[in-house]
Amino acid sequence: MKKFFQQYYTNLFLTDRLFAALGFCILLFLLKFFFSWLGEIPEIALGVVLMLWFIDLFILYRNVQGIEAKRLTSKRLSNGDENPIEIEVKSKYGFTVNVRVIDEIPFQFQLRDKDFRLNLPPGAIKSIHYNLRPTKRGEYDFGFIRVFIASPIGLVTRRYNFDGAKVLPVYPSFINLGKYELMAVSRYLTEFGIKKIRKIGQSTEFDQIKNYVGGDDIRTINWKATARKSALMVNTYTDERSQNIYCIIDKSRVMRMPFEGLSLLDYAINASVALAKVAMLKEDKAGLITISETIGAIVPADRKAGQLGTIMNVLYKEKTRYLESNLELLYSSIRSVIKQRGLLVFFTNFESLSALQRQLPYLKRISKYHLLLVVFFENTELKALSTEPAKDIEGIYHKTIAEKFIYEKKLMVKELNKHGILSVLTPPQKLTVNVINQYLALKAQQRI
User: Fold this and answer.
1) Of 193, 196, 270, 299, which is most buried, counting CB atoms within 10 Å of its CB?
2) pLDDT surpassing 90 at residue 241
3) Cβ-based neighbours of 149, under 8 Å, separated by 6 or more
């Protein structure tokens, strides 16, 4: 018995039902002082409670391992997305047990309500499903799975501890990549506001052989195919499709601003991963540059099989810095690294027109050699404030200032367009879709 308690006492818990039964027995003993006719009823009641307690102990601890539980997750979590988590519980008891499952999830979520209750018939297997939405990249430590078992008697509870401890990395958003892949391969781009412009290329990349129609260049007639088909056939060619697409991510302090739990840097990282995937599906080469006061990571543009994984591994550890980005250094790095003209998508943020004007000379120099697309963010809090009716003089002041900053954002777009620099001003939650739409529009217009 001593060995039994030494082995199991730490996992043995008394229930409210037992305390209620003992309280009832105590009440009977107290009443016995005033009502002698109770006789031996209090002793009998206490004996019954103790007997049931021992029976409960026996049936719960008769099986060395009466319950099995395991946590089923993917090898990594997707930042900013709902990630499914499953806990599978199997009963080996010969009777129905009441089960309480507590999953020790990573401290980053600051959740204490992952507490599940269920009934398990003999030999049954049940699954518990819930979702976790991480808002920071990095490593997340899962702890034990605590399973508490009670028999139908319910006087004691036995705890099982399953070592579900594991460390899962949280990578840039990858769960919704399939949705953006459909945008890349869909032929019905007009639903995204994109009109594809057909342009007959004259490069050496062969496309197909088709029937001759009026207006086709007679120099492209394929005489062998004509002889076989007894009709004029011509070769068609397409423009070179493999272009360099670089995502340039600003890691300076302007990207620390939070929105719905994610920083602007995280939104830019998620959009970069999605754009890289779509670009490679469109047969372009995807690359990456990160910049703050110094040059961060540089991933040369490529479309090999592991390129997307390389980009995600680089972005996995990127963090914002506290100084302003050095765009002069960015310009010199672009000139030395990127030898061919391509599309550069620069994710940054400007909160004032003067901030843009400080960086504008370097942006103009970059746009001379590449097609530059500057992506920056709307301040959604200011936009919401500007639409609210003012209730007093202070409210009028706040609303006026908010409208001033919103108007400055529109001036930034005009200023960039004036110098031939493309721009996208977008709310954070629509960043990925808007950037991919802009890329597809440029692709359809044969600008890249």
Assistant:
1) 270
2) no
3) 60, 66, 67, 93, 97, 98, 99, 157, 158, 159, 160
